[in-house]
Specification:
The protein is built from three helices and two strands; from the N terminus they run H-E-E-H-H. The two termini are about 40 Å apart.
Protein backbone atom coordinates (compact mmCIF):
# COMPACT_ATOMS: atom_id res chain seq x y z
CA UNK A 1 0.00 0.00 0.00
CA UNK A 2 1.56 3.30 -1.09
CA UNK A 3 2.10 5.95 1.58
CA UNK A 4 2.57 9.69 1.06
CA UNK A 5 3.58 12.51 3.38
CA UNK A 6 1.85 15.90 3.54
CA UNK A 7 4.16 18.91 3.14
CA UNK A 8 3.98 22.04 5.29
CA UNK A 9 1.93 23.60 2.46
CA UNK A 10 -0.65 20.78 2.58
CA UNK A 11 0.65 19.24 -0.64
CA UNK A 12 0.94 15.51 -1.30
CA UNK A 13 2.98 13.77 -3.98
CA UNK A 14 0.81 11.02 -5.43
CA UNK A 15 2.85 7.81 -5.62
CA UNK A 16 3.87 6.74 -9.14
CA UNK A 17 1.83 3.52 -9.11
CA UNK A 18 -1.34 5.47 -8.19
CA UNK A 19 -0.67 8.08 -10.91
CA UNK A 20 -0.19 5.26 -13.42
CA UNK A 21 -3.36 3.46 -12.25
CA UNK A 22 -5.45 6.64 -12.58
CA UNK A 23 -3.74 7.63 -15.81
CA UNK A 24 -2.97 11.10 -14.51
CA UNK A 25 -0.27 13.44 -15.75
CA UNK A 26 0.76 16.96 -14.70
CA UNK A 27 -2.21 19.29 -15.15
CA UNK A 28 -4.86 16.57 -14.69
CA UNK A 29 -7.73 17.62 -12.43
CA UNK A 30 -8.50 15.36 -9.48
CA UNK A 31 -11.75 15.20 -7.55
CA UNK A 32 -11.80 14.46 -3.81
CA UNK A 33 -15.04 12.80 -2.71
CA UNK A 34 -15.87 12.34 0.98
CA UNK A 35 -17.89 9.17 1.62
CA UNK A 36 -18.52 8.43 5.25
CA UNK A 37 -15.13 8.45 6.94
CA UNK A 38 -13.12 7.89 3.74
CA UNK A 39 -11.94 10.16 0.94
CA UNK A 40 -11.94 8.95 -2.66
CA UNK A 41 -9.61 10.44 -5.26
CA UNK A 42 -11.06 10.33 -8.76
CA UNK A 43 -9.73 11.53 -12.06
CA UNK A 44 -11.72 14.65 -12.92
CA UNK A 45 -12.50 16.39 -16.16
CA UNK A 46 -10.36 19.12 -17.66
CA UNK A 47 -12.89 21.85 -16.94
CA UNK A 48 -16.01 22.50 -18.97
CA UNK A 49 -14.48 21.11 -22.18
CA UNK A 50 -14.56 17.61 -20.66
CA UNK A 51 -18.37 17.78 -20.56
CA UNK A 52 -18.71 18.18 -24.33
CA UNK A 53 -20.88 15.40 -25.71
CA UNK A 54 -21.92 14.13 -22.27
CA UNK A 55 -25.57 15.14 -22.75
CA UNK A 56 -27.69 13.73 -25.54
CA UNK A 57 -29.80 16.26 -27.44
CA UNK A 58 -32.47 15.76 -30.08
CA UNK A 59 -30.98 17.22 -33.25
CA UNK A 60 -29.04 20.42 -33.79
CA UNK A 61 -29.13 23.09 -31.10
CA UNK A 62 -29.08 26.81 -31.85
CA UNK A 63 -26.75 28.28 -29.21
CA UNK A 64 -28.33 31.75 -29.29
CA UNK A 65 -31.84 30.32 -28.94
CA UNK A 66 -30.79 28.10 -26.02
CA UNK A 67 -29.04 31.03 -24.32
CA UNK A 68 -32.08 33.30 -24.77
CA UNK A 69 -34.36 30.60 -23.35
CA UNK A 70 -32.10 30.10 -20.31
CA UNK A 71 -31.87 33.85 -19.70
CA UNK A 72 -35.65 34.11 -19.91
CA UNK A 73 -36.09 31.36 -17.33
CA UNK A 74 -33.65 33.03 -14.92
CA UNK A 75 -35.33 36.42 -15.40
CA UNK A 76 -38.77 34.89 -14.75
CA UNK A 77 -37.51 33.17 -11.62
CA UNK A 78 -35.98 36.38 -10.27
CA UNK A 79 -39.13 38.36 -11.08
CA UNK A 80 -41.28 35.74 -9.37
CA UNK A 81 -39.23 35.70 -6.18
CA UNK A 82 -39.18 39.46 -5.70
CA UNK A 83 -36.66 42.26 -5.57
CA UNK A 84 -34.67 40.82 -2.64
CA UNK A 85 -33.30 38.04 -4.83
CA UNK A 86 -32.17 40.60 -7.40
CA UNK A 87 -30.54 42.72 -4.69
CA UNK A 88 -28.71 39.70 -3.29
CA UNK A 89 -27.41 38.68 -6.72
CA UNK A 90 -26.45 42.26 -7.59
CA UNK A 91 -24.63 42.88 -4.29
CA UNK A 92 -22.77 39.55 -4.64
CA UNK A 93 -21.57 40.54 -8.12
CA UNK A 94 -20.64 44.09 -7.05
CA UNK A 95 -18.82 42.68 -4.02
CA UNK A 96 -16.82 40.41 -6.30
CA UNK A 97 -16.02 43.26 -8.66
CA UNK A 98 -14.74 45.36 -5.77
CA UNK A 99 -12.75 42.41 -4.46
CA UNK A 100 -14.76 41.97 -1.27
CA UNK A 101 -15.50 38.30 -1.87
CA UNK A 102 -13.72 35.87 -4.21
CA UNK A 103 -15.93 34.44 -6.93
CA UNK A 104 -16.20 30.65 -7.11
CA UNK A 105 -14.53 29.01 -10.12
CA UNK A 106 -16.84 28.84 -13.13
CA UNK A 107 -16.60 25.05 -13.20
CA UNK A 108 -17.48 24.53 -9.53
CA UNK A 109 -20.42 22.35 -8.60
CA UNK A 110 -22.02 22.85 -5.22
CA UNK A 111 -24.18 20.05 -3.85
CA UNK A 112 -26.37 20.84 -0.85
CA UNK A 113 -27.99 18.00 1.04
CA UNK A 114 -30.67 18.72 3.61
CA UNK A 115 -30.57 16.47 6.65
CA UNK A 116 -33.51 15.86 8.94
CA UNK A 117 -32.99 15.90 12.66
Amino acid sequence: MPIAKISSKGQVTIPAEIRKFLGVTPGTHLRFVIRGNTVQIEKGGQGIAALKGSVLVAGEQDFLAVRQHAMGEVASEIAGEGKDVYRNIFSWRVGNIKGKEPAPPWFAVIIITQTTA
